[in-house]
Amino acid sequence: MKLEIWGSRKPNRVGKNFKNKHVMPYAFKVTAKQNIGGKIAKGMSVQVVEKATSSPQIKTILEAFKNQFGIEIKGISVSTSYFTVEKL
Fold this sequence. Notes:
The chain is α+β, with helices and mostly antiparallel strands and 88 residues long. It has one domain (17-87). 18% of the residues lie in helices and 20% in strands. It has helices at 14-17, 58-69, and strands spanning 26-32, 45-50, 83-87. A 3-stranded antiparallel β-sheet has the order 2-1-3.
């Protein structure tokens, strides 16, 4: 039986606790292909940061429009196919 004395544990190292410590964020330019909900005009662009190299998710895109332009889209279905995505 091993006894552990309080305070004898080594402090956690920050790098050990990250599951994906080698994941790098990627920046994308997302541009609307069409008018969306009467609020996002065709050609409007936002910059989006995603943790993976794949295209940004619709939630991330809509959050970017909210943060960068103050535009909230609610009550309609919006798909990533409404946007062109360019990796920066």
